[in-house]
Design goal:
Helices cover about 60% and strands about 10% of the residues. The protein has about 190 residues and is mainly alpha-helical. A two-stranded antiparallel ribbon has the order 1-2.
């Protein structure tokens, strides 16, 4: 089941990468180049979103570094370290509780019981708890891996987003302002330009 899921995730990631539109540098191209030259130039070079996505899929966090989002890369690495710790802790605890549970149910007086004051149901509950969180940490790995690749792609696409100076929203304090019909007042005004 895990093999099928990993193959599905790999194939869907490859399809996702190939479905992206090429990075548009039309504003940089001169009007002298013909359409066929522009198409071949775009096919020759990788686009920035495609590079960021491939880097992120090859090594988690490198897509964020490619986009110069170093804090996001640190968050990605911290997430992977936390999930690895969670997986290791729960795997070790699961094997310990599995051994204790096996010792409790075998009925052999020669086996050493580490928790003599606990019932079978209590040990089984703890075993199931650690199995659940071990499995959740594996799912967390897959989700974090996918999210960091998507984030690198979206961030690279948004780099070409042009925010014009005419588009602004300002909060302006009004202290002892005088308006006709209102008189003197204190407050804030919201000014937006578009």
């Amino acid at each position: 089941m895990r093999l099928i899921f990993s193959i599905f995730l790999t194939l869907s990631s490859i399809c996702y990468m190939l479905a992206q539109q090429p990075y548009s540098d039309d504003y940089k191209l001169s009007t002298d180049t013909s359409l066929s030259e522009r198409i071949t130039d775009e096919k020759k070079s990788w686009s920035n979103p495609k590079k960021a996505t491939i880097f992120a899929l090859a090594l988690p966090g490198s897509g964020q570094i490619f986009n110069k989002r170093y804090l996001k890369a640190g968050i990605v690495y911290g997430g992977f370290v936390g999930l690895a710790y969670m997986f290791d802790y729960n795997r070790d605890s699961l094997s310990k509780y599995q051994a204790v549970y096996a010792a409790k149910i075998d009925g052999d007086s020669n086996t050493v019981d580490l928790f003599p004051n606990r019932s079978e149901a209590s040990v089984r509950s703890d075993r199931d708890f650690h199995r659940k969180y071990r499995d959740l940490s594996l799912i967390g790995f897959v989700v974090l891996y996918a999210l960091q690749a998507i984030d690198a792609n979206v961030d690279a696409h948004l780099k070409e987003f042009n925010l014009n100076e005419d588009l602004s929203l300002k909060l302006i304090p009004q202290i002892y302002a005088n308006r006709p019909g209102l008189g003197m007042y204190n407050g804030f005004s919201l000014q937006y330009n578009f």
